[in-house]
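Possible regression after last week's pipeline update?

I re-ran a chain I had predicted before the update to compare outputs. Posting the input and the new output here so someone can diff against the archived version. Not blocking, just want to make sure nothing changed silently.
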Amino acid sequence: MRNNDVGLIGLGAMGLNMGKNLLKNKFNLTVYDVRDEPIRVLEKLGAKAAKSPKHVGNTSTIVLLSLPSSKEVEYVVLGENGLIHSLPEGGIIIDASTIDPAAVKKFSDECNQKSITFIDAPVSGGTIGAEKGTLSIMVGGPNEKVDECKHVLQAIGTNIYQVGNTGAGQIFKLINNMLVAINLVGISEGFVLAKKTGIDLEKLYEVLKTSAGNSWALEQKLPKMIKNDFEPGFKVWLQHKDLALAMSLASQMNASLPMTSLAHQMYESAKAVGFEDLDHSAVVKIIQRLSLKDIND
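New output (post-update):
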């Protein structure tokens, strides 16, 4: 029987849209965030507000997390007012955050001691995918428990991949975000070269979309670079965080990632000069500075 009592913790750009889609799909939704504003938005749409993560666990059997980093996930799951103290036996935590695979193992082990299942299910598709409910979801966890919560995943995404045991989802996601970052640095270099030569940038975009150099990152982000629009979807600091996680994993696995290392340095520079809260496509501004070319020239 489908369980409709669902909690959602973390109502940022991604989580808020996930919440809207859960409500559209008739879930009994209880929400929590450290900020009141997004809670009020979902309350008006029919959600119930909770005062703490523990309160969410008291009213839910499945809880979805959308949080910035391992630190916040640990607080929400294992903290004094964490889910581990209130979710019933058999409960499921679905973590859609992008965090360290080693942290996933820690959280899963702690939850297992309380007969709670911790599933990692990081997502890709950005705020547009979250709004439309078309996210790609990379799920790591035991088959029977993934099946038990699949109706929740289907409310927020259309491409749901069970990729292995708990923790595997994070590895898939880190590789995805690593490739996006490398791609964005390459697109930035192409953009700056195009600006210096004086060619038609709109025409360049039109041609690249139908050529071998096309990619999701190019289609979504090159128009923003052309318009000097860096309103954040996925922020620079989050991209930098995920690259650091990928580099840490590579070190543990004795894997050499020279392009990822370079992309990490570019995003480190973007953070250092104050671009951390801009869209991750703002890495182009670092390439421009290196080329002594301002985006508005």
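Follow-up from reviewer: compared with the archived run. The two ends are 61 Å apart (CA to CA). Marking as no regression found.
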